[in-house]
Amino acid sequence: xxxxxxxxxxxxxxxxxxxxxxxxxxxxxxxxxxxxxxxxxxxxxxxxxxxxxxxxxxxxxxxxxxxxxxxxxxxxxxxxxxxxxxxxxxxxxxxxxxxxxxxxxxxxxxxxxxxxxxxxxxxxxxxxxxxxxxxxxxxxxxxxxxxxxxxxxxxxxxxxxxxxxxxxxxxxxxxxxxxxxxxxxxxxxxxxxxxxxxxxxxxxxxxxxxxxxxxxxxxxxxxxxxxxxxxxxxxxxxxxxxxxxxxxxxxxxxxxxxxxxxxxxxxxxxxxxxxxxxxxxxxxxxxxxxxxxxxxxxxxxxxxxxxxxxxxxxxxxxxxxxxxxxxxxxxxxxxxxxxxxxxxxxxxxxxxxxxxxxxxxxxxxxxxxxxxxxxxxxxxxxxxxxxxxxxxxxxxxxxxxxxxxxxxxxxxxxxxxxxxxxxxxxxxxx
Length: 430
Prior knowledge:
By secondary structure, this protein is of the alpha/beta class. It has three domains: 2-217, 3-Layer(aba) Sandwich (Rossmann fold), CATH 3.40.50.1000; 228-339, 3-Layer(aba) Sandwich (Rossmann fold); 359-428, Alpha-Beta Plaits, CATH 3.30.70. The protein is 38% helix and 23% strand. The chain contains 19 helices and 17 strands. It has helices at residues 9-13, 18-26, 33-48, 54-65, 69-80, 85-88, 91-96, 109-116, 153-161, 174-181, 198-201, 211-217, 241-250, 262-267, 281-285, 302-310, 325-339, 372-382, 411-418; strands spanning 2-7, 101-108, 126-129, 131-133, 139-142, 165-171, 187-191, 206-208, 232-236, 253-257, 268-274, 292-296, 314-317, 359-367, 387-394, 398-406, 423-428. The chain has a six-stranded parallel sheet, with helices on both faces. Strands 10-9-11-12-13 form a five-stranded parallel sheet, sandwiched between helices. Pfam families: ACT_AHAS_ss, HAD. Pathway: Amino-acid biosynthesis; L-serine biosynthesis; L-serine from 3-phospho-D-glycerate: step 3/3. Its EC number is 3.1.3.3. One of its GO terms (cellular component) is cytoplasm. Keywords: Amino-acid biosynthesis, Hydrolase, Magnesium, Metal-binding, Serine biosynthesis.
């Protein structure tokens, strides 16, 4: 009795609907292509929202495609570039759970198998439809005996598989919810990284804006320690849309307010503000979750800079009012959140550590007193943890340590690192 993970392909494993993309390839020279594209997209959405049977939707789309094998080769190349970011970065999960991960899709093996196989997913665990071709390689239909070509196909297939254990479903469409409705799976997770369908979200056990969220709540191996959708980015003042678009793409939870208040700041992991709206030193002393400030302008108040540093909060500002700060500042914030990089900060010592693969990165910020690095390493030594790389920089107020360690440690290690005397902030990055 194990656990199984039933994962959809279109708009879940990938960011797009593959048949829609195939139409754009096969019909690119068709004079009425825009109208046909829209017809195919409408048929897709009606089925995904449960307003049209999947069987009718599939039949209608295949008739409109006018595709052949050469188009499928182009589609596969395109889809490999369109894997959902949270799936792409969590290759370790798929590698460690090859037996338990199943791709179950109303799409077609001809384009699904070459894409998902690169993520350690076994071919025998890929369940999808099969195209039928004529002698010239044109797609003329599909195997109608395959249950996945029929209405309620995923339910029919799962009944045939008769998997023994807890089954979790991840997908964006109505056919994915039907698995939960049938009672065959334990929980259904509505996947919204690419598209959010209200009719599906309302019926889900849990809404997961990324695979990171799913892995986090189920305590499964993942590329980042804490899902970005759970980190609130407080925005106050004049912050350009281009900057916020970058943060949304990263998955952060954007919250707009007219002013900085203690209750807003206490919930935020990131603050974006302008020169006219900056936190006070007192507010920073009580902002326990705040990790980084991006100020679109100059932080002139020395007390704010010092208070941020003393509380382990890094500040990136733009004293030159660079016209490209809408791109510059979010990139600096993202580099710090993702890699621990402090380059161009106005209050932290400069550190640009290289990424080390197959390692976990830990950040330790502490008061600049002697002996902290020795205490950190003593914890690792006592638990027989190998250090793959370690970086220490200091200024007059703080020490900033990044340690990359081999995978394999328990929660006790993290607890001991947090409790070292003079620790200001500790974070498991990935």
